[in-house]
Design a protein that fits this description.
Length: about 130
């Protein structure tokens, strides 16, 4: 199925060059952890890799002034977003809306690996 959601002739490139930056060092093994701010690439989103082998481990309660989208790449996670508790496995996507405190933890068994997309060119966070 061919998609044609817009007319490419109507989009004017803004002159930014393609860019690349390392998110994590795969030679160091997993679990992967790292971050690349969008500002470093000239882009509008910041990307974090978060991984842990420890059940129950994860980032502390925190909040951002922008949305955060989590992609579970491996394992199972338990997300706490405001009053909601969301169980998510590999292949799931979870939204943490701006201004809503959240955290997640490895629900086990095994490794949890996520890709966390901060909808901002730099990482801004307040731990609670």
């Amino acid at each position: 199925m061919t998609r044609r959601d817009f007319d490419p002739a109507e989009v004017v490139p803004d002159g930014r060059p393609a860019a690349s930056a390392p998110l994590f060092d795969p030679a160091r093994g997993q679990p992967w952890r790292g971050s690349v701010e969008g500002a470093a690439l000239g882009g509008p989103v910041t990307v974090l890799a978060y991984g842990t082998d420890q059940r129950g481990e994860g980032p502390p309660w925190h909040v951002h002034p922008y949305d955060e989208t989590f992609v579970v790449l491996e394992g199972r996670a338990r997300f706490f977003v405001g009053d909601a508790v969301i169980e998510a496995g590999a292949g799931s996507v979870v939204l943490g809306p701006k201004g809503v405190p959240h955290r997640f933890e490895n629900a086990g068994p095994g490794r949890l690996q996520t890709l966390d997309i901060h909808h901002a060119p730099r990482w801004i966070q307040t731990n609670l």
